[in-house]
Write a structure and sequence with these properties.
The chain has 296 residues and is of the alpha+beta class. 45% of the residues lie in helices and 17% in strands. The strands form three sheets. Strands 2-1-10-9-8 form a five-stranded antiparallel sheet, with helices on both faces. Strands 3-7-6 form a three-stranded antiparallel sheet.
Length: 296
């Protein structure tokens, strides 16, 4: 009798969880279908390992999201003793290209200045600096070296092939830098839970991602104020036809109970405006937050 009762309880719990996940997935699909865009979504519960994806296997352009991948590769070199966070990196005048997003150039317009690797990483990740990104790519030996490192971690659904300068010269090059939503949360999960970086390097990267100033209306847009989100955004801007190839955000969200989840949203090939595309990411993040809060 006890065994029968126990079995019925397990069946009941399993049925409830399945129904709950079905409702959640329906909400996700409704949000995604409401927009004329290709949207890749992935949610990873960093406590249980549970993953939910929608279009999670689609290859979508990353834009500046790949600066997270680059930072991981750079900090791996720091952990190996090949680089140091306090070492000085020469920023030459010719490194500071004029027609690109670059708070680094705005701070040091004349160039020919040495700044610490930690400051360069902060510009590149927290402020999504394009010139800083390419200086780091050169330091690493090019995008292919960064891709090699990321794939060595077991993250295969990603391609890192072009620098920011190359993407600005030819907007078709952005499609050579692609990721799937599920591989983005996979990499975030490794960063969060696995010793792929030393504690000090992990803490440094967590800090600069938490200090990200770009995309305040994306993942963070509808979450409670002061929610900690360690994230990296990406945005192609719109072409002359009003088409946006990529507006993205990936990151790790801290819940009020101290638990965490990783989320990746890639919005691609849409003519909807920036306010609308940011709202897509914000709504998907909020429904994810609500779902995990309900499972406390």
């Amino acid at each position: 009798m006890r065994k029968t009762t126990f079995t019925l309880v397990l069946i009941s719990i399993s049925t409830m969880l399945f129904a709950q996940q079905s409702v959640f997935r329906n909400k996700l699909n409704e949000l995604i279908k409401a927009h004329k865009a290709t949207i890749g979504y992935s949610l990873l519960d960093l406590q249980t390992g549970d993953t939910v994806t929608v279009n999670g296997a689609k290859h979508l352009p990353m834009q500046s999201v790949y600066k997270f991948h680059l930072a991981l590769a750079v900090l791996h070199q720091v952990d190996q003793g090949k680089l140091q966070l306090d070492q000085k990196i020469l920023v030459r005048k010719q490194d500071l290209l004029p027609d690109t997003w670059s708070p680094l150039r705005d701070k040091y317009p004349a160039g020919n200045v040495k700044i610490s690797l930690s400051e360069l990483l902060s510009f590149t990740v927290s402020q999504s600096d394009n010139n800083g990104c390419d200086i780091l790519f050169r330091l690493m030996g090019g995008p292919a070296k960064v891709q090699q490192y990321i794939r060595s971690l077991g993250v295969s659904e990603v391609a890192i092939a072009a620098t920011e300068e190359q993407m600005h010269r030819d907007d078709q090059m952005q499609f050579t830098n692609w990721s799937t939503a599920r591989s983005a949360t996979q990499l975030l999960g490794l960063f969060y839970a696995k010793p792929i970086l030393s504690k000090s390097s992990r803490n440094f990267l967590w800090k600069v991602m938490s200090e990200t100033i770009t995309g305040p209306n994306k993942i963070k847009g509808l979450l409670p104020p002061a929610t900690e989100v360690a994230h990296k955004t990406g945005n192609s801007g719109s072409n002359t036809s009003g088409l946006t190839a990529a507006t993205n955000d990936i990151g790790i969200v801290t819940l009020p109970n101290g638990k965490h989840f990783a989320i990746a949203v890639f919005v691609s090939m849409t003519t909807e405006d920036e306010k609308t595309t940011d709202r897509i990411i914000a709504e998907l993040s909020k429904v994810s937050w609500d779902e995990l809060m309900s499972r406390k």
